[in-house]
Amino acid sequence: MPVAKKKNTVKKNNTLKLKFDTSWSYDPAPESKSAATINKQYDLFINGEWQKPVSKKYFNTINPATEEKLSEVADANAADVDKAVKAAKNAYEKVWKKMPAKERAKYVFRIARIIQERARELAIIETLDGGKPIKESRDFDIPTAANHFFYYAGWADKLEYAFPNRKTEPLGVAGQIIPWNFPLLMAAWKIAPAIATGNTVVLKSAETTPLTSLKLAEIIQEADLPPGVVNIITGAGSTGAAIVNHPDVNKIAFTGSTDVGKIIQRAIAGTDKKATLELGGKAANIIFEDAPIDQAVEGVINGIFFNQGHVCCAGSRLYVQESVAKEVIRKLKDRLESLIVGDPMDKNTDIGAINSKSQLDIIHKYIGIGKKEGAEMYESSCRLPGKGFFCRPTLFTNVAQSNRIAQEEIFGPVLAILTFRTEDEVIEKANNSPYGLSAGVWTDKGSKIFNMTKRMRAGVVWANTFNKFDPTSPFGGYKESGFGREGGLHGLLPYLNLQNI
Ligand code: NAP
Ligand code: MG
Asked: What is the CATH number of the domain that holds 485?
């Protein structure tokens, strides 16, 4: 039950006025850790079994909210990658590509069902390992991951309808490398379409968030998937590079930073490897004066502070029409104060822990840059926990288009606010970015929405909402946000060769 900290009741001119302290404190409502089992140590999941790393090395994964060690996981080297790729190639040639699509679909469906059955455990582990609030892991990450497997299970035996008059063929072994912001969901985005279309997989999770991928390996074992169809390995950047450079990998699916995306593109240039790159972003969220302001403010808050701003499509640049700028900024500041920052395992928490110390340092560096550039900073006055990596939700006003905080990806809970007068002006400003992953438009006018979506160079444009995802909808970028689409019918294409019949 929420309890107002301070409550004054004042009677004035016969009207009853309630004055509350602006902050409400909720009783703690922590999720229990007991529903999750985390082993002390994890090996590599290769060829359907847990194998000790050839490297003989392990590294720790910690809980960023407490800085405590959760487990240690294998650090795969090039020899380990080679074992995983061999297992994937063997499974592709001997089993998976020959299996009738209808049978393949049953396995993918089974994985989805087991994710649902083990949803609570997965949500707890996602939150412990990555720092995101339990309400997000529970209500968004895990159900959406299951939905991706369900969705692509449905496509497996219907490819002739997806691509009429074309013969479809899988590519072979897909090397998949994922980041730390949506660990299980990114694994699902990658594995589900790959295996549904008849490819086999070697997937590497991010260094700081390996645990739900390893839980997924347990689920894959439980689903009785033929050995080698999905291999899950852990390691650092060099492990990812070994996957990219392996000659028997036919396709690279990468989600991560633009810098590493460029390294990968250079590494595969001149080879016949196919690639999809889902990279960084600096999304513009645009509020017109005719927008439903309260709804827009809530959308902006969700757009940038959801998942601590660790979202490639986070609405990190806000463009407000001048006539409503004052009102919007005031409301945003009020809302910032009411966001609950703290223990990610508490069901009330809105903003959890920053994923790692190094990411927290990057965010602090950008806050310093914003101040130096002359922008005006406003941060929530909330108290931060004494341990762990936390950051106050922060916004900047008086930002110039050329400021680094308006141009570069911060990947944290930091919003840059700019203003505009006309539609043409804001389109030009929004498109003035090396990125082009997503954008948002808030307006009462349908015609304005159509005009904006047509002219904005962004893979996804949300209208009167933000950060909405669905497995049926394709997602991907323009410009330095990468290429290729994941999700929907489009998400099948990167895993297939199409031939005319
Ligand atoms: P990152 O540093 O690029 O890492 C991504 C993955 O690549 C990790 O597994 C990483 O391993 C691995 N890696 C590092 N160096 C590599 C190399 N030379 N060759 C192959 N793999 C390598 O990105 P991040 O910091 O984890 O994630 C944040 C970034 O991801 C942001 O820029 C964000 O916008 C982007 N992102 C994009 C999307 C999208 O759909 N467009 C979605 C989510 C995130 P280690 O973990 O061991 O370093
Ligand atoms: Mg961790």
From this structure: 3.40.605.10
Active-site annotation holds for 312: yes
Catalytic residue selected from 207, 218, 278, 480 = 278
Whole-number Å distance, alpha carbon 184 to ligand 1 midpoint, is: 14
- pLDDT digit string, tens, across residues 317-360: 999 999 999 999 999 999 999 999 999 999 999 999 999 999 99
From residue 178, how far is each of 73, 254, 261, 346 by CA, in Å?
16, 6, 11, 27
**How many structural domains are present in the chain?**
2
Whether 382 is catalytic is: no
Ligand 1 proximity of 185 Cβ (cutoff 6 Å)? no
Residue to mutate, 239, 243, 257, 265, ligand 1, most ligand atoms under 8 Å from C-beta = 257
Structural domain harbouring 392: 284-470
Is pTM beyond 0.90? Reply is: yes
Joined together, the tokens standing for residue 435 give 């990125």
Does 476 map to a domain? Answer: no
Q: How far apart are CA 92 and CA 98, in angstroms?
A: 8
Domain presence at residue 171: yes
